[in-house]
Design goal:
Blueprint lengths: L1 H4 L6 H8 L3 H20 L5 H18 L10 H20 L19 H4 L3 H11 L4 H12 L4 H8 L3 H19 L2
Length: 184
Amino acid sequence: MFERLFVKDIDEATLIEEAKTDQQAFSRLFDLFADEVYRFVRRKVNTDQDAEDIVSDTFMALAARIQDYDAEKGNFKTRLFSIANYKFLDKMRKVYKEQEVLLDDSFDPSYEEDYAEVLSNKQLYDKILNFVQTLSDRQSSIFFLRYVEELSNKEIAEICDIDERTVSSTLSIVAKKIKERIGV
Protein backbone atom coordinates (compact mmCIF):
# COMPACT_ATOMS: atom_id res chain seq x y z
CA MET A 1 0.00 0.00 0.00
CA PHE A 2 2.78 2.45 0.81
CA GLU A 3 4.42 1.91 -2.56
CA ARG A 4 1.29 3.17 -4.28
CA LEU A 5 1.38 6.36 -2.21
CA PHE A 6 4.85 7.19 -3.51
CA VAL A 7 4.40 6.13 -7.13
CA LYS A 8 4.01 9.72 -8.32
CA ASP A 9 7.43 10.65 -6.87
CA ILE A 10 9.23 8.30 -9.27
CA ASP A 11 10.61 9.57 -12.54
CA GLU A 12 8.39 8.16 -15.29
CA ALA A 13 11.26 7.44 -17.73
CA THR A 14 13.24 5.60 -15.06
CA LEU A 15 10.18 3.60 -14.04
CA ILE A 16 9.52 2.57 -17.65
CA GLU A 17 13.11 1.40 -18.07
CA GLU A 18 12.93 -0.55 -14.81
CA ALA A 19 9.58 -2.08 -15.84
CA LYS A 20 11.31 -3.72 -18.81
CA THR A 21 13.09 -6.11 -16.43
CA ASP A 22 11.35 -5.80 -13.06
CA GLN A 23 7.82 -7.00 -12.38
CA GLN A 24 7.46 -4.75 -9.31
CA ALA A 25 8.40 -1.72 -11.42
CA PHE A 26 5.76 -2.76 -13.95
CA SER A 27 3.23 -2.97 -11.10
CA ARG A 28 4.15 0.58 -10.07
CA LEU A 29 3.73 1.65 -13.70
CA PHE A 30 0.29 0.04 -13.67
CA ASP A 31 -0.57 1.89 -10.44
CA LEU A 32 0.56 5.15 -12.00
CA PHE A 33 -1.57 4.90 -15.15
CA ALA A 34 -4.38 2.38 -14.57
CA ASP A 35 -6.95 4.85 -13.22
CA GLU A 36 -6.41 7.22 -16.13
CA VAL A 37 -6.69 4.43 -18.70
CA TYR A 38 -9.80 3.12 -16.93
CA ARG A 39 -11.50 6.54 -17.10
CA PHE A 40 -10.56 6.81 -20.79
CA VAL A 41 -12.04 3.40 -21.57
CA ARG A 42 -15.06 3.62 -19.23
CA ARG A 43 -16.44 6.59 -21.13
CA LYS A 44 -16.54 4.44 -24.23
CA VAL A 45 -18.14 1.25 -22.93
CA ASN A 46 -21.42 0.42 -21.21
CA THR A 47 -20.21 -1.57 -18.21
CA ASP A 48 -17.50 -1.48 -15.59
CA GLN A 49 -16.63 -5.08 -16.46
CA ASP A 50 -15.99 -4.20 -20.12
CA ALA A 51 -13.80 -1.30 -19.04
CA GLU A 52 -11.84 -3.50 -16.63
CA ASP A 53 -11.37 -6.13 -19.35
CA ILE A 54 -10.04 -3.56 -21.80
CA VAL A 55 -7.70 -2.05 -19.20
CA SER A 56 -6.43 -5.53 -18.39
CA ASP A 57 -5.91 -6.30 -22.09
CA THR A 58 -4.13 -2.96 -22.50
CA PHE A 59 -1.61 -3.63 -19.77
CA MET A 60 -1.10 -7.23 -20.91
CA ALA A 61 -0.29 -5.90 -24.39
CA LEU A 62 2.00 -3.30 -22.84
CA ALA A 63 3.80 -5.99 -20.83
CA ALA A 64 4.32 -8.03 -23.98
CA ARG A 65 5.80 -5.05 -25.85
CA ILE A 66 7.40 -2.87 -23.21
CA GLN A 67 10.85 -4.05 -24.27
CA ASP A 68 10.28 -2.30 -27.61
CA TYR A 69 9.31 1.04 -26.07
CA ASP A 70 11.74 3.81 -26.95
CA ALA A 71 11.22 7.18 -25.26
CA GLU A 72 12.81 8.91 -28.25
CA LYS A 73 9.99 7.72 -30.52
CA GLY A 74 7.09 9.19 -28.59
CA ASN A 75 5.30 9.93 -25.38
CA PHE A 76 4.62 6.87 -23.20
CA LYS A 77 1.17 8.02 -22.16
CA THR A 78 0.21 8.57 -25.80
CA ARG A 79 1.41 5.06 -26.61
CA LEU A 80 -0.53 3.60 -23.68
CA PHE A 81 -3.75 5.37 -24.72
CA SER A 82 -3.17 4.17 -28.26
CA ILE A 83 -3.04 0.57 -27.05
CA ALA A 84 -6.20 1.12 -24.98
CA ASN A 85 -7.92 2.64 -28.00
CA TYR A 86 -7.01 -0.37 -30.16
CA LYS A 87 -8.24 -2.76 -27.47
CA PHE A 88 -11.51 -0.82 -27.29
CA LEU A 89 -11.85 -1.00 -31.09
CA ASP A 90 -11.20 -4.75 -31.03
CA LYS A 91 -14.00 -5.17 -28.52
CA MET A 92 -16.35 -2.95 -30.52
CA ARG A 93 -15.63 -4.89 -33.71
CA LYS A 94 -16.81 -8.02 -31.93
CA VAL A 95 -19.86 -6.36 -30.38
CA TYR A 96 -20.99 -4.44 -33.44
CA LYS A 97 -19.92 -6.90 -36.11
CA GLU A 98 -23.51 -7.42 -37.22
CA GLN A 99 -24.40 -3.72 -37.28
CA GLU A 100 -24.44 -1.78 -40.48
CA VAL A 101 -21.75 0.87 -40.73
CA LEU A 102 -22.75 4.17 -42.23
CA LEU A 103 -20.39 5.34 -44.94
CA ASP A 104 -20.38 8.86 -46.24
CA ASP A 105 -17.58 10.19 -48.42
CA SER A 106 -18.90 13.72 -48.53
CA PHE A 107 -16.79 16.33 -46.81
CA ASP A 108 -17.47 19.98 -46.24
CA PRO A 109 -14.33 21.61 -44.79
CA SER A 110 -16.24 24.82 -44.07
CA TYR A 111 -18.55 23.04 -41.60
CA GLU A 112 -17.47 23.40 -37.98
CA GLU A 113 -19.52 23.17 -34.82
CA ASP A 114 -18.52 23.25 -31.17
CA TYR A 115 -19.86 19.90 -29.95
CA ALA A 116 -18.48 20.40 -26.45
CA GLU A 117 -21.42 22.74 -25.70
CA VAL A 118 -23.91 20.45 -27.42
CA LEU A 119 -22.72 17.49 -25.36
CA SER A 120 -23.69 19.26 -22.15
CA ASN A 121 -27.31 18.23 -22.77
CA LYS A 122 -27.46 14.66 -21.36
CA GLN A 123 -30.30 13.39 -23.52
CA LEU A 124 -28.73 14.74 -26.68
CA TYR A 125 -25.37 13.46 -25.48
CA ASP A 126 -26.76 9.92 -25.24
CA LYS A 127 -28.28 10.16 -28.73
CA ILE A 128 -24.99 11.39 -30.17
CA LEU A 129 -22.96 8.67 -28.43
CA ASN A 130 -25.34 5.95 -29.62
CA PHE A 131 -25.15 7.29 -33.16
CA VAL A 132 -21.35 7.66 -33.08
CA GLN A 133 -21.02 4.01 -32.10
CA THR A 134 -22.63 3.08 -35.44
CA LEU A 135 -19.93 4.92 -37.40
CA SER A 136 -16.73 3.36 -38.64
CA ASP A 137 -14.11 2.45 -36.04
CA ARG A 138 -11.87 5.31 -37.11
CA GLN A 139 -14.65 7.89 -37.05
CA SER A 140 -15.99 6.86 -33.65
CA SER A 141 -12.51 6.66 -32.11
CA ILE A 142 -11.53 10.09 -33.35
CA PHE A 143 -14.83 11.53 -32.10
CA PHE A 144 -14.40 9.97 -28.64
CA LEU A 145 -10.79 11.06 -28.35
CA ARG A 146 -11.63 14.64 -29.33
CA TYR A 147 -14.94 15.34 -27.60
CA VAL A 148 -14.97 12.91 -24.70
CA GLU A 149 -11.27 12.71 -23.84
CA GLU A 150 -10.71 16.29 -25.04
CA LEU A 151 -7.42 15.47 -26.73
CA SER A 152 -5.98 17.80 -29.35
CA ASN A 153 -5.97 16.88 -33.03
CA LYS A 154 -2.21 16.41 -32.78
CA GLU A 155 -2.54 13.94 -29.89
CA ILE A 156 -5.28 12.07 -31.73
CA ALA A 157 -3.11 11.89 -34.85
CA GLU A 158 -0.31 10.34 -32.78
CA ILE A 159 -2.61 7.83 -31.09
CA CYS A 160 -4.29 6.76 -34.35
CA ASP A 161 -1.07 7.00 -36.38
CA ILE A 162 -2.63 9.32 -38.96
CA ASP A 163 -2.10 12.87 -40.23
CA GLU A 164 -3.62 15.81 -38.31
CA ARG A 165 -5.51 16.82 -41.47
CA THR A 166 -7.16 13.39 -41.51
CA VAL A 167 -8.27 13.94 -37.92
CA SER A 168 -9.71 17.33 -38.83
CA SER A 169 -11.52 16.07 -41.91
CA THR A 170 -12.88 13.04 -40.03
CA LEU A 171 -14.25 15.30 -37.30
CA SER A 172 -15.95 17.44 -39.95
CA ILE A 173 -17.48 14.36 -41.58
CA VAL A 174 -18.75 13.08 -38.23
CA ALA A 175 -20.14 16.51 -37.35
CA LYS A 176 -21.99 16.63 -40.66
CA LYS A 177 -23.42 13.13 -40.11
CA ILE A 178 -24.55 14.06 -36.60
CA LYS A 179 -26.21 17.19 -37.91
CA GLU A 180 -28.02 15.21 -40.64
CA ARG A 181 -29.05 12.32 -38.38
CA ILE A 182 -29.84 14.04 -35.12
CA GLY A 183 -30.47 17.59 -36.26
CA VAL A 184 -27.85 19.24 -34.08
